[in-house]
Amino acid sequence: MSMPKLSLGTRFFLSHLLVMMVGLSSFIAMAKLSSPKMFVLRLEQLERQGFFTVRSARTYLIRGFETAWDSSAISACIVGGTTAGFLSYFASRQAMKQFKAMKEITQEFAAGNLHRRMTSSDVPEFNQLANSFNYMAKSLENVEKKRRELIGDLTHELRTPLTVVRGYLEELADGSIDASPELYARLVQETRRLERLTYDLQELSKSEAGYLTINLQPIHLEPILNSLVEKFADQLLEDGPVLQLDCPIELPLVLADADRTEQILVNLLGNALRYTEKGTITLKAWREKQVVWIAVIDTGIGIAQDDLSYVFEKFWRADRSRSRYSGGSGIGLAIARRLVELQNGQIEVESQLGLGSTFRFSLPVS
Questions:
Q1: Which of 188, 312, 293, 303 lies closest to 247, judged by CA?
Q2: In the 8-state DSSP scheme, what is residue 213?
Q3: What whole-number distance in Å separates Cα of residue 44 and Cα of residue 162?
Q4: Is the pTM of this model over 0.85?
């Protein structure tokens, strides 16, 4: 039969008692061995000095001293043990308060209540533990909040194309509308939107979890920029915006992932084309100290100043109704920001409502 395990408070209490007992035992043992000898030496000194002669009473005095010492030692053990036991019990209870509070809070966390926090303590170590625990609790609360927001936004994003597809299919089933190439094209468009949303979510999940592969190596940006301008130029209408490239020939090599850099630019250029009906879209690159900046500058509808801090959040849109029909998933900029960070760069945005936007990101010079 195994011995029952002791709680931490009991271990604290017993450890204090053990220290006290060892200290008292050591003191008594040393005093028991040395005190009689010291007493005899003191008597001999007094005899040599001629104060008195105690040779005949020496044995009686030593026995009396030992009896008195034993009685005092027993009394000291009783009083000291009682006092030390009380203090040990009090100290162990005080030490266990923080642990009990943490136990209660973690149980509430498990039940879904993430708002509780630990109070500060006079003990520096416990105070550091409380601060670390509260930081962890705040992080968990933010993760849970973002998870709920993500589920809500994802439900909203999926509802629109699914409702459109179901509506068309129901009308086709009951004969309310006739099948036509235009109708099938609409169904294909909504299906592709669902595919893009699924792919973007997968990419964002990989990047946030650290599973996204980044192959950093020295690359030339000019071929990538020229290729993108040619690709997107084919998508421009005659009365649409003009796409132009502003890139110096002597642009240095950058330490980056060519595929991921192109993915970032595809997102930025796609947004620029989506929200710029007329004017210009400029893809610009330049060197600034030890980084190379790449910017997508458009003359589109722009973004309000109050909304600039949200543009890289998942599923955020300045104009939800417009974006819903333009085919955006709402997480392209969130993916772009994460890809830039994984390549040791930073991404920024400037915009004025009605005048256009500038999205730029940096990559380190190789």
A1: 293
A2: -
A3: 109
A4: no
What is d(CA 333, CA 350) in angstroms, rounded to the nearest whole number? 14
DSSP-assigned letter for residue 123: S
Q: Helices 258-275 and 332-342: crossing angle, nearest 10°?
A: 150
> Between residues 40 and 192, which one has the greater pLDDT?
192
pLDDT digits (tens, 9 = 90+) for 232-264: 887 776 677 888 998 888 889 999 999 889 888
Across the chain, mean pLDDT equals 77
| Secondary structure of residue 293 in the 3-state scheme | strand
Place of tokens 């011995």: 3
Which residues, at least 6 apart from 248, have a Cβ–Cβ distance to it below 8 Å? 285, 286, 287
Residue 151's alpha-carbon distances to 20, 41, 109, 146, 155, in angstroms, are 59, 88, 20, 9, 6
Angle at 320 between CA 315 and CA 321, to 5 degrees: 145
Length of the chain (residues): 366
- Pair of tokens at residue 208: 């946030």
The pLDDT of residue 360 is 94
Cα separation values, 258 from 168, 217, 219, 222, Å: 41, 8, 7, 11
DSSP result, 299-347: -SS---GGGGGGTTSTT--SSHHHHHHHT--S-HHHHHHHHHHHTT--E
> What is d(CA 150, CA 145) in angstroms, rounded to the nearest whole number?
9
Q: Reply yes or no on whether the pLDDT at 322 is more than 60.
A: no
CB 204 within 8 A of CB 335: yes
Rounded-to-integer distance, Cα 345 and Cα 214, Å: 13
Q: Which of 262, 283, 263, 261 is nearest to 272 (CA)?
A: 283
CA dist., res. 203 & res. 263, Å (int): 11
